[in-house]
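Record type: monomer structure entry
Structure origin: computed from sequence
Chain ID: A
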Amino acid sequence: LQVFKFIYACRLAETGLCAQAFHYCEVISRALLTLPDYHSPVFISQLIQMSERLRFFDPQLKEKPEQELFQEPDWLLLLRKLSNQIKPGLKTYH
């Protein structure tokens, strides 16, 4: 199901709806973080890449002070940490 949401997020981004696409990435990431073993490292990596590209379209970013503009959201940091654990084989993948 998350893969289909990711495809939809990609389509949203392609049509210029980047803020909505970024929100989808957040929703997907939070779901993925609850059951990380059910998703491939490649999918996690693609989700991180898409989120990185879209994060500056986040409408909440405009409300933050300038020094916080380059801080990544907590869910993206956790996703990156998970990805780093999987890559070197620190975490088992099913």
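Annotation 1: The chain has a mean pLDDT of 85.
Annotation 2: DSSP finds four helices and no strands in the chain.
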